Amino acid sequence: MPAVLADQFRRAWWVLAALLGLVALLLAGPLSVLASGQVDLATPWYAAQPGRAGLAPDPATERGAVVQVYGARAVRWRGAFAIHPWIAVKPEGATAYTTYQVIGWRAMRGGRALVVTEGAEPDRHWYGAAPQLLVEHRGPAAQALIERIDAAVQRYPWPDAYRAWPGPNSNTFVAWVAREVPGLGLDLPPTAIGKDWLGPATLVARAPSGTGWQLSLWGLAGATVAREEGLELQLLGLGVGVDVNDARLRLPGWGW
């Protein structure tokens, strides 16, 4: 083999080895989550206990407006990698919540992926996984957001589409709404796989929190720099970085 070709081969090999090593490092997070037992691999989705997390104010006693965004581990092994998020709102004086989310199995059965549910239990477990409250607004600030959130939901470009990876999926939807309503101030964790899918023709957009910017190559690779998210690098949907504002790491699988 000529010396030039041999040198090019060695360089290509080292580049490939570096990429494989990086992917292995990123996968260490989800694999450690699986090993920790945080994800229920035994209970079938249809047998999971619904339950409630007790994070939503009772609309019978809370008369003010409420806006909440939740995220819960995805079903079975997927939960080691990603969360499923949803938005819950209750206007001032209302006696029930409305939730907005994208559900994959509905699209797979030929239905509409975007689901708006009136009278929902906003903090209900997602097929056995307890939700985490990602952001909350109450009172006049929440009331000002609700109409903007509903209008953004109606404009969502992919209401009938769902693709678990790299998107569009449930995280794509919530991130898209957050970009349209920057006052929501939503800082999605790196486990929100799909949040970086900006669409087939968009490479640069505001960060979901509205406090910075992100570059994304169709959700396959990219970077986010923002006050709320900090610096996050993303490869194949897995994100890693540092959140200086909150003094914490952003890790694949574990989230924050």
Task: Give your account of this protein's structure.
The protein is α+β, with helices and mostly antiparallel strands and 256 residues long. It has one domain (24-250). The chain is 26% helix and 25% strand. The chain has four helices and eleven strands; from the N terminus they run H-E-E-E-H-E-E-H-H-E-E-E-E-E-E. It has helices at residues 3-36, 104-108, 140-155, 170-180; strands spanning 66-73, 83-90, 97-102, 114-120, 132-138, 204-206, 212-216, 221-226, 230-235, 238-243, 248-250. The strands form two sheets. The protein has a six-stranded antiparallel β-sheet with strand order 6-7-8-9-10-11, with helices on one face. Strand 8 (221-226) and strand 9 (230-235) form a beta hairpin. The longest helix is centred in the N-terminal third of the chain and has 34 residues, at 3-36.
